Each structure stands twice: as C-alpha cells, then as structure tokens.
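Journal club side-thread
Mid-discussion, someone asked how the predicted structure for our own chain would compare to the paper's figures. Pasting it here so we can look after the session.
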Amino acid sequence: MLASRLVLRSAVSLSSRTFCISSSCNQGKAPDVNEVRNRLREIVGASTNWSDHQQAMEERTSLSSLLAKSQDDLPVKTAKDSYTEAYLPLGSDPTIREKYLNYHNSVRFGRILEDLDSLAVLICYSHTWNKELQRSPLSIVTALVDKIDMRKNIIYPDCDIKFTGNVTWVGKTSIEAKMHMSQFHEGAYSPVLDATFVMVARDPENKRAAFVNPLKAEGPKEEEDFRNGELNKDRRKELSKASLLKVAPTADERTLIHSLFLNTLDTQTVSFRSRKLPPNSLWMEDAKMKGLEICHPQERNIFNRIFGGFLMRKAYELGWANACAFGGCRPTLVAVDDILFQKPVEIGSLLMLSSQVCYTQDRYIQLRVHTEVLDPLTGQHNTTNVFHFTFRVDKEVPAVVPRSYGESMLYLDGKRHFDETMRGQA
C-alpha cells in the first residue's frame, strides 16, 4: 500500500529531501507529484530557482490587501480542515533511506525535526487556506516548539514512517499544531513521538502579525485539545514571568546554589577563591561544545530565510555530540522542550552554536543549545534561538558544577526544564 503513495518535496524546505503528503486541502483526491509540489509552491509563490525565488518574494508585497482586517472576517475552520498525513518511505525507497541513516544504523533525528517543522507549517496553511485565492497572503513561521515527547527510543532505518497532525488551538494570530509520528514494524504502526508546535501568522513581508481563521472544536476530544492549548498558552506566560532573566531564583533555588558552592570550598584554605571539584563532578565550563554554520541559500525556506528545521537539526546534532562526549557513550533522546525562535536567520549569516550541559541527574543529561548570528561586517551578535534537550545514557554521569553566578542561573534553568520533562514523563 505504501509503495503506491507519491513522493514530493517538503513544503517548507527547498532542499532535495522528499516525503509523501496527503492532506485535506486536496479534498480527498490522491494528488500526483507535480500537482502537489506545484500547489505547495503556489501557496506563497516560491520557486526552487534562487533568482526567481527572490523575485517572487518581492512580488508578495502586493498580497497585503488580501489580509483580513479582523478575525471575525474569516470563516471558522475545524480540525478536519487541517488534518494532514505525511509518509516517509524509508522501507520502500532506498534512495531516501540513505539521507536519513546514521552511523549507528538508526535514523538521524535531526532530519525528523526538519520534517516535523515542514509538516507543522503545511498543517497551518491547510487551516488558513482560502480556495478562492491563488496564493496565501500569510507568512506562517515557527514561533516555538512547545514539546516533543519520545514514546519509543528505536527508529528503524528501513521501515516506513507516518506523520499525522492537525490544528488543535488557535489564537488571533497564532496556531498550535499537534503531530504524531508512528513507524510500520512487524505488520503494524506503533507510536514513536508526539510533538506540539506553535506557529504565528504574519503579513506577506513577514513584518507584522496577521489574523488567522478561528477554530471550532467538534466533540469531546477536540474540546479537550483546545482547552489544553489554552492551558499551554497560560503555562508559557507564567514560565516567562518566572524566567531567571527577569526575576531572582526562589528561596529553595538559592539554597541549592549555596550548597553547591559550599561543596566546592577547599577545607584546607577556606577561601572564597580556592575552589575544588567534589568527587565524580565536572565544572560546567568544561562541558561545552561549539559549532559554526555558514547559511547558504540551499537551506532557505519559502520566505527567503533559513529553514527553521535546519536550525533544529544543527542544534540537535551539536547537543547530541556534546551529550555523547560528556556521558562517554551514545545518548538517547528523551524530550525536546521549549525551543524559542526569537529572530529569523538571514541567508549569508554566520550562525554560531553553543551547547552547554546545564544539569545532570543519575543517567540524565539536560542540554541547552544557544544560537546567534554574527554580522562579519559590524561584529554584532544577535541571539536567534534557544534549544533544550533531555538525553539519557546507559551509565551514571558526572554532576556539573557551576563556578560563576551566570553558570548558576544556567544550572537552575536546566533543572527547571528537566523537572518539567520528568513531570510530563510520569
């Protein structure tokens, strides 16, 4: 059955990787490759040719007049309108399999992150699509990855993968999309992961917010999903208010940091400046890894910026390498949490990535990857993304110990993310 599915290029990334898509915007009709690929490009007028693509983006400014003046002017949509399935035929197409294969004869999870990002955008375009228009005036971009929970640690490199997803919550200009990934193995599909992305709609030039269609929940399951979307929004607001970049640590957190400090004092000198590591521990400054990427046009998205999935893949792979070196063995991903997309990354940028082990507990490693762009002409640095990953290894890992106040805040932030992940796993 899967062999009869058609293969097309990703809706968002203009690279050569492929996976099959069937969505409600096709009104149940099985699309052929050219129809689907051309339709996805027509949504925003994108082209695979670099010079044509630049011209198409300049022409999008004329679509501003098609934007709704208020959300009330847009028709109400349901979850069924955005429901989308996507197949990754690793079992039936060896040429695709090669691009997803890693050294350990498993699947490169960074590639999966790219596909999830593409699918999330396509789901949101399906929700907002107006069949009377030739092109969508909306620029839909990833705001954050709220959560990716792994339900299975093994992803087989030679078994077909199915992605499904739909819109579960809508604000005035933002959309929450939930996706599920399963893999066909031993005669049936079994769940691999659940992901929640939050996307935002902007004008054709991606300069200001734009309204999106309201969502009508049908049935108890959709109503529960919508309520959870509201709860997720409120939770993110509370976490933002409690950010260590805005307010001081709690009393318990201050006590924890002081206890860590006392454990590093040299009992022989009893000096603030004389510090030594406790047994089975490592200074945080020695648990880093860095990388650099030159952002070429090949990794652009349909809005002429660097594809968010590409950024996630590079951050994940650096974080995985850091966890591997720190733990001394191959790490397993437990969760991806709270990825913030603060600023777009322009083509031609120098992207600097910095991975830091922030917190450890037993066999778990909590990692933070910070990315920033460097303008080589001005020397100016700007933060673009912050990523949080939780890994598990097969043996107990050293404790990381902060030396400075800034590292202590990273330690506490890592512990907060780890505790939140463990609550979700319970």
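Post-session note: Residues 183 and 189 are 5 Å apart (CA to CA).
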